[in-house]
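1st attempt posting a full record on here, be nice pls
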Amino acid sequence: MCNLYRMTKNVSEVAAWFDAVAAAGGANFAAEVYPGYPGLVVAEGAVRPMTWGFPLVLKGAKGQPLKPKPVNNARTDKLGTFFWRHAFESRRCLIPLTAWAEAEGAKGRMTRTWLSLPDAPLFAAAGVWRPSDEWSDCYAMVMTDSEGTAAANVHERMPVLLAPDDYAGWLGGPPDEALALCRPWDEPITIDRTGEPWAKNAASQISLF
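the predicted structure (as tokens):
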């Protein structure tokens, strides 16, 4: 499952790429996006900052509220469940990214493997979004099986990647049409295995784009 991705373009570049309106006032987000932190999405014709992950509100042993957990991945086969259904039916978005990462290696020594599309400076993953009391607007990335793709050499699941011709169908098509787009990517994928440690301090990565 994807718990880290890279997005190195600024708001204006994303807006031009997706023929969308740039968010007013800029946006705070990092080149490396982690669950619970802000990222950019294309929703309702605009490039907007939102928090990555739907808040899952938890309670402690004595019933006290705990810090919400960001649920940042939505499995394709769970989109019809209560947690995701309304967002999938009425609030779909595009998640711009330049690469996504998976952890590989022995526990405690895992490194980052980055996956991207060849010669694509920017591409889109399917997403859903909704408003929340905890984090204002938030989004999640839709995931599918990676079987039959190059990504399967790294992880059994991968983001649902969308070709430009499918953007409109994902954003505004009926749910059954959108669900049909939730399939493994059948085009080439670039895999970059690095020596970078998997765990880094997400808070130190925040910058203004």
